[in-house]
Amino acid sequence: MLEDNTTCCGKETEETLIFDTKKCPICGNEGITVNRITVEHLVQDIYQSEVKKDGFRICMDENCDVVYYNPEGKEIFSKKQINVPIWFKKDADPKYACYCSKITEEQVIDVVVRQGARTVKKVNILTGAMKNSSCLTKNPLGVCCHKIIQDIIDKELAKNK
Ligand SMILES: [Zn+2]
Questions:
Q1: Of 67, 91, 109, 155, whose CB neighbour count within 10 A is largest?
Q2: How far is the CA of 26 from the centre of ligand 1 (A)?
Q3: Where do the domains of the chain lie, and which CATH numbers do they carry?
């Protein structure tokens, strides 16, 4: 059984997020390091051959169209070139909370509001989130969605105080 602080891939999310000083070439904000395997799986098929080197980063700015960029290979992939909507980018539709099980932010909020879920564990049981763990190839950050779900719960609970 999953403990509250257990992630679906058995690792703490924080550890896998490596902040880096290398900046997005378009908006200038610092991106987060992303595994090349993640990029390969999420860009559209026609761009897959352009993903050759390690060193990819993801731009976290919600208003920036850039998703992945690689200072090494000078590659840039924008929102339109990615197979899934990036949840933290403006106009993402749908906004997935868990990419592995295709659970949306809306579904998470729904079980928090209507069914009184207060923990990630409860949300997972009620929505079926985090059942199929393939974070590395499905989540745009290549990390477990545990933290994303926790953030949605926290935000929703703060609203209803
Ligand atoms: Zn950017």
A1: 67
A2: 5
A3: 14-81 (2.20.25.270), 94-159 (1.10.10.1100)
